[in-house]
Backbone:
């Protein structure tokens, strides 16, 4: 490749955010995101509405990313896009656009696994943060996924623990719904929890073999707890909202850290990273920092803008595929349940 600058256009459309980013070598020049407020009244993402919104947003978002980066589309070396996992209708929009652009510009097409993107976001140049050293452990926590991953190299990752039912992000959103908190519930729970007592109420932690996770039992436990308490006091949730949120958040974080600590011992790894939407949670970040000090871990916490779904992480993951010539052809199609 010589010393030529490599410019990658990243496209992300796995759920309800349409995003485009321009990456020059390992530096992000632009990372544009168009969110979708249309789902709030439904209390969750409506796939049909999401794919329609992606169709409206994708051209303006890509144009905006190019303009902000001061890059002409002809200067791009490759187009990286999210192939999956995600909502099929949403993925189709990004994949189809990337294929069309690749044909029109005669540039290589590079598919990216969305979960690889979350992990590799740690390698975007940033003066304020050190990049992880291989091998490292990454706890990836988002609305659809909860995974423990051993990262041996940019393109060599092994999932050693995953959720057998709900993901941690779903546990936040579904329990928030039970509490009458608007969607997405995670950030609201985080906010209310700051004012509450994390030890006020005890919720059950599942017993799952190995390093796998389970969160569906917690949701049932919270539901039964609320039914029991509101029977005696109809204002129970209103009067105890901060404490409920703090106790619930504490339980979710404990479940995550029980496995993370076990994994560091089992694999003898002291480089630990978090990634994914839930890695924006303030308690999760605080807990990782304190465990890091206590256990002598070297910890890596992503910038807020690289926690949620974004194209910067797709561009950086696409860069490493491009460098080894891992290109896709025009027959590529998205996969809603793409394995890591």
Residues:
């Amino acid at each position: 490749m010589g010393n030529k600058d490599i410019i990658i256009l990243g496209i992300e459309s796995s759920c309800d955010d349409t995003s485009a980013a321009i990456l020059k070598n390992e530096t992000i020049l632009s990372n544009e995101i168009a969110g979708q407020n249309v789902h709030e009244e439904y209390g969750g993402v409506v796939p049909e509405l999401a794919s329609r919104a992606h169709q409206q947003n994708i051209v303006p978002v890509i144009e905006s990313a190019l303009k902000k980066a001061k890059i002409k589309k002809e200067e791009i070396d490759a187009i990286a896009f999210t192939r999956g996992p995600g909502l099929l209708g949403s993925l189709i929009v990004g994949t189809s656009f990337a294929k069309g652009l690749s044909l029109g510009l005669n540039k290589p097409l590079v598919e990216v696994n969305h979960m690889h993107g979350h992990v590799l976001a740690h390698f975007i140049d940033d003066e304020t943060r050190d990049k992880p050293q291989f091998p490292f452990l990454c706890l990836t926590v988002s609305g659809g996924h909860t995974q423990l991953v051993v990262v041996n190299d940019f393109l060599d990752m092994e999932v050693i623990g995953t959720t057998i039912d709900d993901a941690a992000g779903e546990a936040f959103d579904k329990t928030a719904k039970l509490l009458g908190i608007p969607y997405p519930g995670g950030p609201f729970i985080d906010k209310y929890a700051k004012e509450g007592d994390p030890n006020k109420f005890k919720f059950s932690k599942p017993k799952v073999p190995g390093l796998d996770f389970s969160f569906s039992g917690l949701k049932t436990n919270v539901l039964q707890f609320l039914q029991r308490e509101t029977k005696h006091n109809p204002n129970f949730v209103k009067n105890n909202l901060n404490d409920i949120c703090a106790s619930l958040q504490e339980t979710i974080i404990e479940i995550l850290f029980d496995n993370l600590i076990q994994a560091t011992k089992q694999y003898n790894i002291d480089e630990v990273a978090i990634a994914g939407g839930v890695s924006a949670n303030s308690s999760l970040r605080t807990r990782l920092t304190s465990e890091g000090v206590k256990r002598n871990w070297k910890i890596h916490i992503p910038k807020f803008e690289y926690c949620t779904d974004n194209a910067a992480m797709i561009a950086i993951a696409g860069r490493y595929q491009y460098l080894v010539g891992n290109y896709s052809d025009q027959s590529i199609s998205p996969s809603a349940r793409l394995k890591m």
